Amino acid sequence: MAQKDEEHCTVFKIRRCFLWNNQYFQLDMYQEPAPPRCKGLILLETFTTELDKPTLPSFLTVEGEVTNDPYYSMYNLSHKDEQTAALFASLIT
């Protein structure tokens, strides 16, 4: 692969898509093999044109908002070196 980046790895995830309260959600559950920062990670994503925050499903426990957190970008999640990923994330915040 001519464009393979040796500093990054493939990130595997299972995606579950569902509708709840007329809102579309994607639930990504990261799988092995995975970089340490992805182990046990589950991200919920939704898209809306509404100005208000969407109502989140009551059956899920949300620990925090990561929408604008560069640590959770696919670029950083796929980085093989934890320190480099954290440094990159801190530089763009």
From TrEMBL:
Which SUPFAM superfamilies does the UniProt entry name for this protein?
Answer: CYTH-like phosphatases
Q: Which GO terms describe its biological process?
A: photoreceptor cell maintenance
Q: Which GO terms describe its molecular function?
A: GTP binding; phosphatidic acid binding; phosphatidylinositol binding
The record ties this protein, via InterPro entries, to:
CYTH-like_dom_sf, TRPL-trafficking_regulator
Name the record gives this protein: Uncharacterized protein
